[in-house]
Amino acid sequence: MPLSSPPPTGTEELDDPPPSSITQENPSPPSPIQLLPDDTLHHIFSCLPLRETLASRSVCRHFHDSLSSPSFLSLLPPLPLLALRHPRHHHHNYHLPPSLLAFDPSSSRWLRLSLSFIPFPSLSPVTASSSLLYLWADPAPSTSSSDSKPPKSLILCNPLTRSYRILPPLGSAWSRHGTVLAAPAIAGSAVLVLTELAALSYSPGAASWRKFSLNLPSKPRSPVIIGSSIFALCDTGNPWRSQWKLFSCSIDDLGGPRGWVQLERHEWGDVFDILKRPRLVRGAGISRILMIGGLRSSFAVDAPCSTVLILRLDLGTLEWEEVGRMPPEMYRCFAGVGGQRGGAAATANAVGNNKVKVFGGDGRVWFSGKRVRGKMAMWEEEEEMEKCAGVGGSWKWVDGAPGYGEVVYRGFVFDVAANEV
């Protein structure tokens, strides 16, 4: 099911209605609430959850104008969401307005935010920096060959304030193969596009992109930005056996003499060897990295996996610790039962053959798989549980995920707020 189709059951629309659809003011005497000063009205609605506040904008034109003003939007606290990316081989419906599908962990609800204010027929969200969303935009539908398609544009926008900005153009190779990373405000709000050999960097107000050589031993895997540095896994092994290592580089040092540094300590031992197909995700706070992968049953090259393991690195002490293992009954769902290999054998290879997608940030990790239809698994760091029970988080299912068949979704953390674009 395309993300541009009508929302699945249980999904709430957070679209800002066009002025023509807003209830017209009643010619009769106004109600008492309409006589309140704007600052009083703002105080009342700022106590409501963001979801209910946005829905209130469609009640009447007075509410729409007052609750859409920059002075009111700046009062609203951020709403942390999981935003879904379009699945691979996604076919857009150019007759329906583009939108962003997201999950609110605090209320366990799916939400849909309108992107119709951006004048492009096809939009694909890729990442976010706090409340600012980055999307690839196709200039127009095309039936020509891929070699002759015009390059996509990278767009920065804020769905809450309905503002956007088109970044300087990129070549088609960057838009097809690049990984987009957005740095937080403490790192200058730069946006990076990484490929196997090089990176592009753009800072607000710049006239063009800056290009750097990566100088890494292999293509960076699941790069993440924490603070003002980039962290990525690289395969330093050979064609017969992978050997994953952790590399780091300050954003300011990209292309400089210091460049990338391999992070390694003797005390880490075989921490990178016990995981199959590891991924990095930002942990909670500003000094934690989560590494997630299939837990190998042995050190053999073709060793099957028994479950998903989550490790956490404290960047202050450079110490790893185990913080989560996917429950066996949950892990079996990602492999299915009664498959070609059946039972435990199928379960053991779920992560090894890349049937599970791992994504998230800020201490939450989601898992999407081909065999898990209509739901995703979620793990969340919990400090109190860590202190009392010796573990670092909790597991649960997220129901109502859109899609069917072989669709596998990916996503990223997005905090809805009224920041400037």
SS strand fraction: 35-45%
Quick one: overall form?
Answer: globular
Number of strands: 25
Arrangement of strands in the largest sheet? 1-4-3-2-25
Describe this structure in words.
The chain is mainly beta and 421 residues long. The protein is 13% helix and 36% strand. It contains 8 helices and 25 strands. It has helices at 38-45, 50-56, 61-67, 70-73, 172-177, 328-335, 343-348, 383-389, and strands spanning 11-13, 79-84, 99-104, 109-114, 122-129, 132-138, 153-158, 163-166, 179-182, 191-194, 198-202, 210-213, 221-226, 229-235, 244-250, 261-263, 275-282, 288-296, 305-314, 319-325, 356-361, 364-369, 375-381, 393-399, 411-416. Strands 1-4-3-2-25 form a 5-stranded mixed beta sheet, with no helix packed on it. Strands 5-6-7-8 form a 4-stranded antiparallel beta sheet, with no helix packed on it. Strand 18 and strand 19 (305-314) form a beta hairpin. Mean pLDDT is 80; it is low at 1-9, 337-354 and 384-390.
